[in-house]
Design goal:
single chain; alpha+beta; two-stranded antiparallel sheet; 4 helices; about 30% strand; globular
Length: about 130
């Protein structure tokens, strides 16, 4: 019996990894930074437009990556999205000036998961490498 549970758990983990890989991305280069957007299906048109603005506008990028900062990430809760009633969702967490990209991703996800209202775990919507 326990073998089936282990097999089912492994299959679920693999399916989750495959699903995460299927998310389309867009990559921008701006002011020496590489910005990767993850176009999750749960994002509204308004949310996508806001994320794309970060990759295309120096002023919007500077909100995420202050001068001298290197690595940043933003995590979103699928149930909350990025924008709710014209405001950023409370669970949308962005971190900047981390020592490396994996640390930025982990920090953003942890903050988002702590703030989300429920539903699936948080996912990364934005990565910035300004090194």
């Amino acid at each position: 019996m326990w073998k089936w549970v282990a097999v089912l758990g492994a299959a679920t983990a693999i399916a989750g990894a495959v699903q995460a890989q299927e998310v389309q991305t867009e990559t921008y280069t701006l002011e020496g930074a590489q910005i990767t957007l993850y176009l999750h299906p749960f994002l509204s048109d308004e949310g996508l437009a806001m994320l794309r603005l970060v990759g295309q506008n120096r002023d919007a990028l500077s909100l995420f990556v202050p001068e001298g900062a290197r690595f940043a990430a933003m995590a979103l809760a699928p149930a909350d999205g990025l924008v709710a009633d014209g405001l950023l969702a409370e669970s949308a967490v962005a971190v900047a000036d981390m020592s490396d990209l994996p640390t930025a991703i982990t920090s953003a996800r942890e903050g988002c998961d702590a703030a989300r209202s429920g539903g699936d775990e948080c996912v990364i919507a934005l990565e910035i490498n300004a090194e």
